[in-house]
Design goal:
Order of helices and strands of chain A: HHHHHHHHHH
Number of strands of chain A: 0
CATH architecture of one domain in chain A: Orthogonal Bundle
Number of helices of chain A: 10
Largest sheet of chain A: none
Distance between the termini of chain A: 45 Å
CATH class of one domain in chain A: Mainly Alpha
Radius of gyration of chain A: 20 Å
Oligomer: homotetramer
Largest interface: C-D, 52 and 54 residues
CATH superfamily of one domain in chain A: Tetracycline Repressor, domain 2
CATH topology of one domain in chain A: Tetracycline Repressor, domain 2
Chain lengths: ~220, ~220, ~220, ~220
DNA sequence: GATGAATGAGCATTCATTCAT
DNA sequence: CATGAATGAATGCTCATTCAT
């Protein structure tokens, strides 16, 4: 996917998208005005409407594009992973990398208010569901091997990404200074603990063996 | 705190707040109009402005009230807990109970867009920070006992509540049918795993066979 | 009905209606802008929308008011008539008097393009149909006495008012200089000829006497 | 004149005209947009402007074309008539036939709001006046023979076509189901009564002779 | 305290028209 | 001749807020 933030001269349509992304991320879809987009994109109102027809449509286009980009990164990461723990680590890392690389897109994507019309909303849910299914398929072997726990399906995303997501929200909201990527190890460890079966988890706890060992740190 | 959803006849001011909450939760603060609130509250525009002066002020009042209610429940829960694991469980349970009991307030509170003016925003952050500090103080003993891990402070909330929060968002957004409280045990188990020190955790894993080990708890 | 063109200071709502009528008559409903109305009425946009909600609604209000005024005059006229021929004469006179007295309202009423929404349109048709029924009831005796011809119902209005209407349209369109009321006698004579039974008509033709005369062609 | 409604593949220009007529008739000139015309004609905006330069011009072209077509039919009819009464009948018949054959053109022609610019308007009036003069010339003999009444010139059109026009308007507006041509005889009888001199008229009344006869019917 | 009329800046969107390709 | 991207003035309407009663 072509990167949006590039500084290469964009054609009108892309320029409008880029400007819209910036504005949407800054003030939210509702609060963003066509005029904001116009000023930022150097396009005329007419041109904007010629290409998109509606403010909603611009948002929808960005949404689809962004969602795609996000998930593709995520899936690519998992495909390369050699074991479950690495997969989880890579997922977290990719997730946070992406957010830090595209904070505007992230802010926009994760705001997810109704702003986008029901019609578009449906499309988005479908897209997400599809990607999610693909993801689960990639993880399947590890479920079968008893390494990852079988849970109610709605719990996977929260347990895996919930903490990272929460941290990212803080960062995106300006309520956190530090680079959230610094927490990747911690977060992936937590996700691993949350998702691993007791057996798999026990095997990775740093003590275990000498029952009498004293808790470092 | 006076419950808002009550059906007892409310005085004007409360009626306005109740109506505002409903409207804000439904369409977001930005999209909600004074007129929406007027219709729902049966008050006149003039009356609304007499009591609150600004749309922002209504939101701020609700925010303060809601935040207070939320945190008080949370803190009360932890105060009763007898050990760290129970504390975590009670936190998760209280969190989800509250959300299910007051979905509108939750939706409103967690939306947290800039909508609220910088001035109010500052107040809110302060309030949250204070409560958070109190919470940490309550947990302090278990840190000292080596039961809970010492982490970068910004990670506590995400690890503890992130998954629950993520699940709750899905539920509040209508993207999840099941009652999120059904996941309390699972979520608190995950939070425990994420926050416990290796030793404390190892003691609670359900296998551990190494005969000479003692399961604690 | 309160006359609109009065110069007595009007309350806002009436002022808006009066201004709207002027503008609508001048450029048509579509072409008239809210801003035109605002300037002419000295009201603010907000005020206009406070009272009417829609441009359409303003038009509809005028329409209802105008139609009522028009028909009431017409019906009152017929009620006073002593015989069929007088009734016809009075109808034509009232019709043209009204048009000359309220050219703007007439121009507006007779334009009758879709401009008014289907909903309002339905109401208008109903109103017209009701009045028309009343009118026919008033004329009934003369039908029963064999003075007025029985025709397909859709022909009465055209035969009675069609010529006057056509003339009025020319006048309202500025394509006719002379006062259309000058043609009242001529038009009512024509209407009488068109609607009277042969017997009733024969009795009023200015010659007739030479009983044996054959007019040949 | 080339018929517009033909289904033979049209060249661009004609296709545009045909589409414009349809759109103008449907929503009125003002409300019709170039884009409506573009969609219906399958032409591009550029092409439309290449051929006509202005929306007004399209309307004017249609107007001229339509007016010509209408009047030619009318005049041709009168030329064939053998006596005054037949002439009137043929005029009415031609008028209604034309309307029923080209309802869109009729709707468009008779709407006659200012929509067409003053310049074009002038041209149209001239055209109409010329045709009207020709028409009167054709009728002249019957005036001289005392068969048709001498009236103020502005009354001829209303008396002759007013009723038919009124009926046609109802039909074009969808407020009348029956085919207006069914009323030709009735309307031409009325026009004859309205325009004939008393003598000429008396000769055609169905009774006349037995002065003492009682009004059967 | 309550009411609702009034205000006017602001907004999304439309549309005739131009013009480079 | 045809195309469609681009333009920007204009429009109907919304909405927070004020204020006289």
């Amino acid at each position: 996917m072509k990167t949006i933030e590039t500084t290469v001269p964009l054609d009108r349509k892309s320029a409008i998208l880029a400007a819209a992304l910036a504005v949407f991320a800054e003030k939210g879809i509702e609060a963003a005005t066509i005029d904001d987009i116009r000023q930022r994109s150097q396009a005329s109102v007419g041109s904007i409407y010629h290409h998109f027809g509606t403010k909603e449509n611009i948002a929808a286009a960005l949404f689809a594009q962004g969602l795609d980009d996000y998930w593709n990164g995520l899936l690519a990461g998992v495909r390369e992973a050699e074991d479950a723990r690495a997969a989880i680590h890579i997922l977290l890392a990719t997730h946070l990398d992406w957010i830090v690389a595209r904070p505007e897109l992230a802010r926009f994507l994760f705001a997810r208010r109704q702003a986008v019309s029901p019609a578009h909303d449906q499309a988005i849910r479908q897209l997400t569901a599809d990607h999610f299914k693909t993801m689960l398929a990639l993880l399947k072997p590890w479920f079968q091997q008893g390494i990852l726990r079988r849970l109610a399906p709605e719990l996977y995303a929260p347990l895996l990404l919930g903490p990272a997501q929460e941290l990212a929200r803080h960062w995106l909201g300006g309520r956190l200074r530090q680079d959230p990527r610094a927490a990747i190890d911690e977060l992936s460890a937590a996700a691993w603990r949350s998702l691993a079966t007791d057996e798999a988890l026990a095997a990775t706890l740093s003590l275990q063996r000498p029952a009498h060992k004293e808790p470092g740190k």
